[in-house]
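Changelog-adjacent note: as of this version, every example in the card shows the full chain rather than a window. The one below runs 157 residues end to end.
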Amino acid sequence: MNDLGAPGEAFSDERILADVGRFLDELDPPPDDLVQRVQFALALEDLDVEVARWERMDNLAGVRGGGTGTITFTVSDLTVMINLTKMGKLHRIDGWLVPAGQYGVEVRVAEHGTKSTTADEGGRFVLDNVPRGTTQILVHLGDVSCRRTIVTPTVVL
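Full-length structure tokens:
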């Protein structure tokens, strides 16, 4: 006898799906920290944010410990391009915003807090000494009276 059942036993959809589920759990289980990653992504103090989408990712930059590379995110009228450079146990994030402007930029790293900077007139910003971990970038457009916040999907540095 094998895991396929006894001879002559009928296969039901439920049994097949349960077997597929067990198979996937063994070969490709979810990451141990999946719940923490989801909670981190949802734990923004200001829930009135727009979420950018992945546009392009070169060389799997920053995903599960990659070295360097470029990631581009977009939302309706803003493009955020970042270049990640690993520097020992820390990272440097060089970024560009289009359209350019002096916008507030913040990086959130799970269990490490946040770091902030302001993009220059050309939309360029740099965030040094960013620790490893689940990371998001927030861009604050406008002034306090009509502030709009864009957040990127999480990246694991």
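Structural remarks: Confidence is low (pLDDT under 50) at residues 60-66.
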